[in-house]
Records
---
Amino acid sequence: MSKRKPYERKMGATWWLKNTFHTKYIIREGSSLVIAIYSFVLLFGLFRLSQGAEAFNGWVEAMSQPGWIVFHLLSLAWTLYHSITWFSLAPKAANIWLGQKRVPDSWIVSGMYGALAVISLAGLILVLI
Amino acid sequence: MKRSNEPVFWGMFGAGGMVAALFTPIAILITGLLVPMGIIPGEQFSYERLLAFSQHWLGAAVIWIVISLPLWLCMHRLYHTLHDFGIHAGNLVKALFYGVAFAGSIACATLLLLGLV
């Protein structure tokens, strides 16, 4: 740790509510909470899968409790918000050129939505066939 | 000057962000809503089918990517959000946050590899 003590502007816990840009930023960062929890829920499901049929069925059963349904509804909405913000930032991170011309931002954004649609459809087909 | 380890975490963050944006919505819809609500019949998501899926190398890879990579996005963002709320955490807390993502990735890989052998 360095010995210097930089100046820190005092900011209240609600600074992010005073400006729409900051509010959206914190809402987007907040998606991390539910996505991380969801990852651990799935990891636990995988653990139960490794313990046999009874354990796995118990996990699936637990997922139908109202609390978990609400959690997954909230997570789905919040994750989609993360997707939208991620797609809108994608052209700023990607610098793709076709010959002498830079690929327009709208192509990259549309491409990401297209990929989301294809992957989602593939997921549904995979579980239904 | 000591080289920064940030590019490594940034890479995992980027990969995780991509997976969370493209794969996580449909994963939540299937495992969290359509199956538990019975819209997708239970036999489509049965123990036997899931076990077979997890024991195929491609299925195992998909499961690992969907569980592990978003954790890196999330722990990276949560760590940096601490700063936004005035908590200027040191390297120990940083190690703790990335450690959660690391531990989750390793636990997931271990469970899948045990099923594969």
Note: The CA atoms of residues 26 and 32 of chain B lie 10 Å apart.
---
Amino acid sequence: MRYPFPVGKSDFIQGDEAIARAAILAGCRFYAGYPITPASEIFEAMALYMPLVDGVSIQMEDELASMAAIIGASWAGAKAMTATSGPGFSLMQENIGYAIMTETPVVVVDVQRGGPSTGQPTLGAQGDIMQAIWGTHGDHMLIVLSPSTVQEAFDFTVRAFNLAERYRTPVVLLTDAEIAHMRERVYIPNPDEIEVVERKLPANEEEAKLPFGDPHGDGVPPMPIFGRGYRTYVTGLTHDEYGRPKTVDAEIHERLIRRIFNKILSHKDEIISYEKFMLDDAEIAIISTGIVSRSGVRAVKILREKGIKAGLLKLNTIWPFDFDMIEELAEQVEKIYVPEMNLGQLYHLVKEGANGKAEVELIPKIGGEVHTPMEIVERVVG
Amino acid sequence: MYLKSAYDIRDKYLRKDMLPTIFCPGCGIGSALQYTLRAIDDLGLNPDEIVWVSGIGCSSRVPGFVNFDGLHTTHGRALAFATGIKLANPDLKIIAFMGDGDAAAIGGNHFIHAIRRNLDVTVILINNFTYGMTGGQVAPTALKGLRGTTAPYGQFENPFDIADLAVSAGANYVARWSVFNYLQGINSIKKALQKEGFTLVEFLSPCPISFGRRNRMKTAPELLRWYQKITVPLAKAKKMSPEELEGKIVIGEFVDRDRPGLVREYEAYKKRAKKMMGWEE
Ligand SMILES: Cc1ncc(C[n+]2csc(CCOP(=O)(O)OP(=O)(O)O)c2C)c(N)n1
Ligand code: SF4
């Protein structure tokens, strides 16, 4: 396999470019999108690369169509991705719900920008955290990852595909405008250095007849992709194990939705990832995600120099959320600070996790700039 | 043409465990479905290579009843899903079964763009002038004066002529019949299924329950007579003045051409890309 970019060496590239290259190395062969700042460069890179690797890159009429197209491509057997920013992400929500309900592996990149509405197109914000988790209607479960460097944008994109295929679910890569446009040194591995997960296909006719069952007991049914003679019917309506619509049966609805929840929640130890920085003896914890974590690390160093025992928890996975781990941390520290580029979204999750065991204080910032380390330090020092 | 019995067609292609269908007595959707299955049967197409796609509405329930791979999607967006399926696996033949509201209202944008791209798909479009599934609101195809629950005093907007729209947007094949023109209907579907690019067969279809009841046509025979009254064959329509055509619907075959389909265009594009990058001669 020949790649249209150098592999097995480092390159100095933007986050958006890193996401596109990672997708191709993870096996993505279908991209559908609609241009929007600050995610357009992902599309532009995919447009350049996809035809060369015998994949498809297509510009759809809008984001509803882009989301629809990648779901269709996934049922036809392709690993598929789309990328957008806030307003486009809002348009995708209906079909993200469809992907959850039909258990379709797809990757959706949301490069956040200032909102609401068309807001601040060229400036960063972390205002889509709640939208990523709760954007679509109904009881639902999906996976949300958040990188804080360009290297992580690459690594987490590969992981997003692997999790999507492993759990037959949409995975959102929720990233920041700063990372999308920032250039950093990124190691682009050789294909044989990357772990690539493929979706579970039905092993036999029996399994193929249960596209929404649980033949392996892990909550993840094998996916009988179209064109292989399985004659699978897929609907966004509540359906039984065979895929037959059953819209008024409470028991069937409960069984389906609970399984969709549990296939992710019962594997949350495999899915949830975070990094702890100087937290072991900390009395003050800073919890953050994405680009803000980088100011957080610096803030912890400054606080330590001042003799304050601070530490940082950087969330790589935003959803599912490890409420128990936050509670344990809250038992250890006196106070938790949550700096985020919005007026409080991650804050609510942390507060719920802390469960009153420690005070939780929000450090909000909006308008397009990342918190400086000193802004965090000053709030902590008081 | 020799016609197999309807029972044979049913037994060969329907999913027994999904029956009975949700369709009301006198509904035309079953007829359009039967014509589609007969066309597939006559052509000897392999069901394993066909995927049915639909949006939301009564018409869109059809893929659930046939024993094929099927994707029952969100309201209006079937053709966007179909774009992904077709481009990801061009060996699959795609039939999109959709309602007039599905195709021309909420899905209007996807519809015109799928046609502009010449997406390789055969659309079977059920035009009943109404939103059947949600109980009889007006559709953008409703002729002026027709009633719906959201236009209780008669539609005051201009209707879309879907076939006309499809011709202008660039479809390779467009025909419109009422479900009572069964031979023409089957023949058109057969033609459509054999062509590359975007093909559309629109059926004027009785919806006695949601539509007829509100327009003083409670039964299928009453709707049949009304369709006979308002439809004009293409050849005759050509000799009529715009005034005479007011409130009428032209039926027939509107276009039959062979522009390259999206799959073929993309294959050529891939070749061009590799050549421009010096990857291939
Ligand atoms: C986003 C969205 N809006 C509205 C609906 C409600 N809805 C379901 S079917 C339908 C209209 C169906 O009419 P048509 O497409 O003409 O199909 P028919 O039922 O007449 O065959 C509507 C509005 C929906 N399911 N999704
Ligand atoms: S409501 Fe109308 S379109 Fe729907 S099944 Fe009944 S008759 Fe057919």
Note: The mean pLDDT of chain B is 96.
---
Amino acid sequence: MNRNPDDHEDRARYRRPLTALALAACLGLAAAQQMEASGDLRVLGFGVPDEIASVRVDRFRELYPDVNLQLTEGAIDQQQLLTAIASGNPPDVVYLNRDDLSTYARRGALQPLDQCIEQAGIDVSQFRPAALQPVTLDGTVYGVPEFNNIVLMIVNTAALDEAGMALEDLDTSDWEAIARFNEQLTTVDGGNVTRIGFDPKLPEFFPLWVRANGGQLVSDDGRTAMLDSPEAVEALEFAAGLHDAAGGRGPFMAFRDTWDFFGAGNQVASNQIGAWPMEQWYVNVLVESSPDAPVAFAPFRDRQGNVLSFATGSAWAVPAGAANPDAACAFMATMTHPDTWYAAAQERARLRAESGATYTGTYTGNLAADERIFGELVQPSGNEAFDRGVEVILEVQDAAFSIPANPAGAEVRQAWTDAVNRVLNGEQTAADALAQAQQETQAALDEAWAR
Amino acid sequence: MGALRTGTVASRPAVGRSGLRRAEARAGWSFIAPWVVGFLVFTAVPMVASLYLSFTEYDVLRPPRSVGFENYRELATDPRLRLALWNSFLYTALYVPLSVALALGLALMLDRVTRAAGFFRTAFYVPSLTPTVAVGALFLWVLNPSVGILNRALALVGVDGPGWTTDPAWIKPGLVVMSLWSLGGTIVILYAALRNVPRNLYEAARIEGASGWAEFRHVTFPMISGAVFFVLIVNTIASLQVFDEVYTMYFGQMDSGAGGSAALFYVVYLFRQAFEFLNMGYASAMAWLLFVVILVITLFQLRVSRSWVYYEGR
């Protein structure tokens, strides 16, 4: 899966330090409920690559000067985390993928946050349901949601024009229309693919296709695998079949791997794609790298025509045995407070304006934060396509779902990913692959819940 | 008195020798102590611990729970394990003979080069210093079916290159090609062995009218057979444990999905069981199975080596 430049360190074009203006703004904002916190605070898995991170970290340091904050930069390293926990020296806060959180929680490696939520005055109702669900196991909250990645459709309008089609012709609720669109816009020249009509983004968005077809991978209580349902089989057959127009998965991937994904010559600017579902952070990539690219944005829709999206993201959690849970709680509350998000977004908007770039928003798991950011900071840029993109992102947020919390997150993900890949590689039929994945997933769930 | 004196005199050297032996023993142990401590701490104890853990269910987060032979029973029925073992065997069967043959060919060339020999030795060895993760990332581009340099080179001679990174049938051959990048160590070992072949043997062979092939067959190869055997053993063990590059290419951030089955090598699967699925007990059992497999293969190679490896001192 492609990385999110918002919550990783790969797009560090916006630099610390915080300007005096932003600092003043920070200090002037209301804080989360102030707690008593001091001593060392070790945070694992979180870096400070840009102003969205640095403004929030600086705000915490301002509010809690007696806390000695130590960040272990870089993405979460499971070996590092496990070793630290096993040696009885866990970090105080860990920043991890929401899908993995419940696995640790079920094994007693994370602390329930009920007390922290109460002490810090964290308003759980502010979190988007799709962000809160994966961090809630058996009714107990184990994580504080951070960023929220949702999926929308990105369309190359130059390809549409070439085919004599309008944006409305791409109705993702009509799978036959998607197939026709794909056939029409996929181009192969001399045996080499030169444009992919419709990229279903498999295996990563398989859950979206299943949901669009009325199914789901795991039951809402996280106990029952539902991978071999007719809806899932049909969804996989259809989405995998979209590779055929390019000559199969091999030529498809060989071509896709050559794209300049983050550059000015990206697949939209280079007319190498017709349309595809994608996480919203890529809108920011496009607006930065190729603001004049012929692009349009639209919601993905299920087969009944309802707007649908798939949410993933990160969260904060406190390992069991953390030496400084009070400071950990204060840190999580501060980092995810609407005021803190707003201050960070304000700084990004300022930097974008300074460089003449368009600010398309910062997408958090906190509804109150998003309302302030998009209500006050994100202004129409005059670039109609990207302004519409922002509207679409906000429109689909409430229609997003996530994979329910379950204690075998990695194994479940592995089972369906492998199944999709086996189908894409022509090793199994969709029915056989998903039947196998169903067995593997149910066994993993049963074992994990029995522990 | 004389006898006593004699006896006393006679016993002195014995005491001295004993003291000297003790002193030498102490010195010897002190020299090897760092290795012994390192072996005990970083190898022996972890091995014993993993043997114990292989009979438990253990996720690091909670104390291990004894499950008897359950993990080993599960090994016998795990289809992914069979796939991973098969992938590793196939890769090893492709890579080891090819790598030894190619390294030997290059070492023979080096042995004959007189001008700029240092340059060629360096040129052959430097690629093996590339970090393995970087090699994996690099070869995703080198092997790219559309724009990769390998298929472009093949196209120049009219060959339509395969999908090295996208076609499951070609993923293992692609990984073999990638592994050849790091051949430097093997070349150096074989080159050193070639330099040690007594030159008078070649002179004698030439006087006898031996052809180039006969010279290689009856002089060179027997004289370097010990080194060839060594690299065969070492490369076999390394091939069965290959991980970094494969994980980088097919299971990390750059995962294209194509390698899900074709590139699921044994140690990749072991790593996933241990650190992604938190099944440390099962992963420990996997490690011991791999240990036994490697032991059996090595013993077989040792047995077969008697018929073709020549040790000068024996």
Note: Residues 325 and 388 of chain A are 43 Å apart (CA to CA).
---
Amino acid sequence: MESDLGLWVIPLAILGGAIRVSTPFLFVSLGEVLTERSGRINLGLEGTLVFGAMAGYAIAYLTGSSWLGVLAAAAGGALFGLIHGLICSLPRVNDIAVGIAMMILGMGLAFYFGKPYVQPVAPDLPSINFGWWSEVQQVRAALRVNVLFIIGAVLAFAMWWMLRTTRIGLIIRVVGDSTDAARAMGLRPLLIRTLSTAAGGAFAGVGGAYLSLFYPGSWNEGISSGQGLMAVALVIFARWNPIACFGAALLFGGAGALGPTLQSIGISEGYYLFFAAPYVLTLGVLIATSSPSRAMTGAPGELSITK
Amino acid sequence: MTDQSASAPLVGTPQRGFLGQVARRAESVVLPLAALLTGFAVFSIFLILQGKSPTQFFSLTYQAGFGTAFSWQNTLSRTAPLLLAALCVALPARLGLVVIGGEGAIVLGGVAAGAAGVLLSQTIGVVALPLMAISAMLIGGLWIGAVGALRYYRGVNETIASLLMAYIAIALMNHLVEGPLRDPDSLNKPSTAPLPPPLRVGDIPAWEVHWGLAFGILACLLAWILIEKTTWGFAARISGGNMRAAQVQGLPVGRLIIGFTALGGALAGLAGFFEVAAVHGSANASLASGYGYTGILIAFLARHNPLAIIPVAILLAGFEASSGLIQRRMDLPDATVLVLQGFVFVSILMSDTLYGRFKIFAPERWKSA
């Protein structure tokens, strides 16, 4: 690993790590943006993420195709989202509490069905080498970008455009801002919210498949360490804007890459404290962006978490 | 006019005598019980689809959790931390707050107790044990009280903040146990120095269950009195119903929020103390064993009523205690209990929609039909 890069290794490794670590954040937060824009919150995405990781890995192993695995993860995630959406459509049911319950159920089912897949090796997702021009090994490693990251980035812009300019986007925003206004327009708020929640679940499932099929790239019970939950805070930080989610996911990914990066260059002192960096960052962001008195700018009016 | 308004019942709170009151109470017992059974039924279907026998599952659970004196001891030892963890959810719930990060207070409370034990290892138990318990409760109270303070002063969502802080607490514990507080003699499993025998909490005489159970039940009783019989409990419920209105009424909303969250956190910290002083004998990574998360389910099942927490915690402790036997006998993964908890939790929350739907529980509607 001798190189003439010197201390440049650290920012380069953090950049590379940010790109690798951010993809699950990106997918879960895009899913959460869609769900929250329709006026509902889904805290269960942590469970959906873990279930997606298991389902994606199992199907990729059984079929030999990593893309079928991604598809299965999306389908599983959509099912979880659909169930969450339907339960929350019942009157007087608290969507935050149901999210916690779905988190437990998702993890339980993932650990239950995932037991036989801890040992086998499933095919990886492909990645593209953007660092082919460089002779330096660290640069090549940092710029080996997974296809799902690129798809996620494109999706962020597509969703921004959809919410801003299309009819579907307008419908989702109206439902999220005022149930009464949506009813007056002849829309069916509960149906639209349930569909948005299901679509959001599918996104989170794909984020999980990235975890098991690319980075860290194997299935085990500790595969998610709260990414699904941090994504909920990330959405608040990004002010429900998909493009801002992309930036925020990179930031959180960078924080998550801090510990492993420092360890790889031989700094292991306080390893566990660096491991806490993404959570501390998330909490700090939440504290900085919350306010006791005024409603948050950009927040959908029907969203229970901001009331 | 005045006569009539004085004698006529207020809208929504009519009195129909003893039977009416029983009917009202029955709703809050029958509906959760029905939801619990529904959760068991869905889980049974799940097992049948897996080609496993639900009858075998539940009879094994009964045997291993409640069948013999030994299984009762096992179950009741696990009940102690669950009671305290559930109170950490139920007390803030009085104010309408969903705090789910009790695990963090348990873990840090345990570390504080272990560290205090090392410092006080030359002292006698009568002095050291209360100090260890107090330091555990202080840390736990500060940790979850901070969640309440963030909620009140900054409007930070308590659900997300408390869970993030649980992750931070576990990282902090790993750092302390692997680093500054590590006993060099602990090789495979980094731990703080083992507590000397006088600093260990023993069993309740003739029960062979450690004292944590007695303190857990006492805490539930005191919490029930606090919630149901004191003005603080009443003020907390008003604040939970409508924070603005409570502030207009001059209620100290901030102090209530921070006080109730800190009290819940202190009790979870106490659970950490018992885990260290009565079960493990030192602070290590086994402190993060998920009691905090099972506590969330228990509190919701008990509808945040501290007295109801006691039987519900015993029930779930029995399921967790029997997990090992079920794995061996039925060849099921250890996550089976988690699946069961998931189904029960979802079912319980869905039953929220049924309150007030059934005429039999609503005495004021008995005559109107």
Note: Chain A touches chain B through 48 residues (CB under 8 Å).
